[in-house]
Amino acid sequence: MTANSPPPRLLVVDDEPDLRTLYELTLMREGYHVDSAGSVEEAWQVLQAERYDLLITDMRLPDGMGLDLLTRLESAQRPEKAIVITAYGSPENAVEALKAGAYDYLTKPVDLRQFRAVVASALGRTGSATMSPARPAPEPAQAPGTAPRVDGAAAPALARLVGDSAAMREVRALVQKVSRSMAPVLIHGESGTGKELVARAVHAASPRGAGAFVAVNCGAIPEQLLEAEFFGYRKGAFTGAQEDRGGFFQAANGGTLFLDEIGDLPLAMQSKLLRAIQERAVRPIGGVSEIAVDARLVSASHKDLTREVREGRFRQDLYYRLNVIRIDVPPLRERLADLPTICRALLERIARDAGVAPAPTVTPDALAHLAGYAFPGNVRELENLLHRALALSNSDRIEARDLGLADITTAPQQVVAPTHAALPESAEVADEALPADLQAHLDDVEREILIKALDRHRYNRTAAGASLGLSLRQMRYRMARLGIDGGTTD
């Protein structure tokens, strides 16, 4: 809000005069213009006469529910955001409010510091009374009451959700729909379907798009480090804590925290995460007080979390909090009609990263081969196949032979593992160590060979590539992929 711009207009709806007065005074001290009403019908009459930037309503009113106002606003295509105040200990009401389109919710008794922070967040403002010195300022805000931002920073993320299948159109529509609120989003899909891309699109299309996007793989953090990584710690809290350090929640303040593979969190950590979500605050290890945090929560899992709840591996109350809005990302085998579009987008990015221009195209025969494959690894597997094909292709067209799909599809029928019973009793099987990461091992071998060839030919990429049967384009691509610097063209 600039010095010459009018203050945001807020409407407070509550049937308790004392609470209504408390909210009004708190908000007016923050510089807002505040009107009030005591019932659904009174509020609706005010709304028909005036436009507001934000509606703050109690859940239960004498003549109905605060959610009735949200429904009417939606039907009238009104732009006002809404914050709903619910009874303490009623997560069902909080989830219901978010599903009805509320930007956020508060629970009674309302903490005024949190109240100011949530209102400021809804309006895209920095609440001076609620911000600690260490808290980063939020992103530049769109005008209150305008449609969610889907251009600018949002465009690249949304553009990567390619495909014109019905399933992908639904995913993009949901992304734009949920971007307006703070409602937690649960993304479900098989490994490799692009769940993080969807999460990034949710973040980028929202008013928080210029804020931090913090992605966390919940299954990759040792259990004993989870609390420190999520909530931070204070200097001296344990051996090795040489200084204060913030956690994931603090890093995502004003932005979005993406919890990938949320189903892998141990039950003990699930309980602590639930408290952080409910209280909107975290207590660092070794700290004596909680720190308020303002992070939009998006989670993802390839697991069936309803089954995990039934079998006691996932907390039902946490699942209820996370699964406010669910986005299902379809596997690639269910949207094979999108293959040409996906291949084109992937090859353009792969070629750009490798410094190869123009990007190669996929022949119709190669596309037909791809369409006949089940893709258990989904889009991630397709990307790996195209990486390999670009490295093997000698032209600007990727043929079916470059894909190597015949080897993949026939391998299970051709390879028979030897059994110990087939060996003579006196035979000794060598216990040869196998690489823990085959791809990394092969990359190291390839890198060593390329460096030797470059060194032998004084880093002339054309000559070094020719000695290995590679074109200059293939040589450039492999060097870029393996992080090998230097070399000349001729």
From TrEMBL:
The keyword Secreted does not apply. Residues 127-150 are annotated as: Disordered. It comes from the Bacteria. One of its GO terms (biological process) is regulation of DNA-templated transcription. This is Sigma-54-dependent Fis family transcriptional regulator. One of its GO terms (molecular function) is ATP binding. Keywords: ATP-binding, DNA-binding, Nucleotide-binding, Phosphoprotein, Transcription, Transcription regulation. The modification 4-aspartylphosphate is found at D58. Residues 161-391 form the Sigma-54 factor interaction domain. Residues 9-123 form the Response regulatory domain. Transmembrane segments: none annotated. SMART domains: AAA, REC.
